[in-house]
Each structure stands twice: as C-alpha cells, then as structure tokens.
Amino acid sequence: MDGPGASSGSPERGDGLGTYEWLQRGLGLLEDGHAAAAATVLERVAADEPRSASVLEALARAQFSAGRPGAAVKTFERLAEVAPDSDYARFGYGLSLRRLGKLPQAAEQLALAVAMRPQRTEYVEALARVRALLEPRAGTADRGLPRDGDAEAGGPESAEPGLLDPRSAGAQGAGGQRPPSDDGTGSSLEQEGGPRG
Description:
Blueprint: H1 19-31, H2 35-48, H3 53-65, H4 69-82, H5 87-99, H6 103-116, H7 121-134, H8 140-143, H9 155-158
C-alpha cells in the first residue's frame, strides 16, 4: 500500500494509526471471525487506499463473510478491475453473484477463475455446482417444483458453507490471505467452492 495513507494516520480518525495498521486490525478481526467489524474497519481503509488490491480483497472477503453479498459483488468487481489477473477476484465475484441468485453471471466469473487456475479444485467444484443449478432437473419444470438455487428451495445463500472463511484450511487469497465465508456464519467459502486459497 503505497501512498499518503501508508504511514500517517487518517485525518478523519485522528488516531495516529496508519493505513497499514488499520488494515492489519481489520485482517485480525476477520481472522478471529468478526466479519462485520472487519468490514467496518476495512471500508475506512479502502477509502484511504481505493486501488489497493490487498485492501479490496480483504474488504470483499469481510463483506462476503458478514452476509453482505451485494457489497461483496461490488468490491470483488473493483478488485477485478484493479487486478485483472487475479483468479481469486473472479472466484469471490462468482460466489457473491451466486449468493444473490445471479447464476449466469456467477458461472461466467467462476469460469474465468477456472481458466486462470484450473488446478484449484474449489474453483472447478464451485463452477460445476453453479452450472448444475442452471440446468433444469428432469421433470421439475413440468411440475412447477423449485430447483436448487430457487428462493423456495433455500436460495443460493443456503447452499454449501463458505469458502472464503479466513479460518478454513486451504482457503487463501492473494497475498497469503484466507478467503471470506459464503454463508456469513464463519464457515469457509472453500467448503462451498468459494474464493481461492
């Protein structure tokens, strides 16, 4: 994180802490399972460092883990713009879109993540799950029965624990950081096919 906020405290805070210290505080909260508090801290850091990939990734993970998929979609999208070569950005973006029920867009982002890092089994599995949700089950369309991902069936947010949880084994984003949770309960996104590890 280069720039004016890297070593001096934010003028609005008047706390004497620099942007890096606030980032570390936010990451610590996320690691300890306090996603909502982490998101609050990291939103302030992102205001100081709006083009920092590490800050955007941490914020998106926190938003996702805090059960704020709409905010996570926007932040993962910004991360993908800032770091277009980030497979993790595409993975988190796809999982967040899935949570919102935007399955075609989720499949597109997850396919990009798989294309970038085909060896990541959680990417491949998440893409396969979304594609399965896009295919109507035999006979259900005729009977009007809900499909996986439909609101009546619990919606995408009820499927699979989150892979973006910083505490999950193997879940790790860019810069050695662990991904956020998909279900807002602190469970790992990798367990769900969430952003990369």
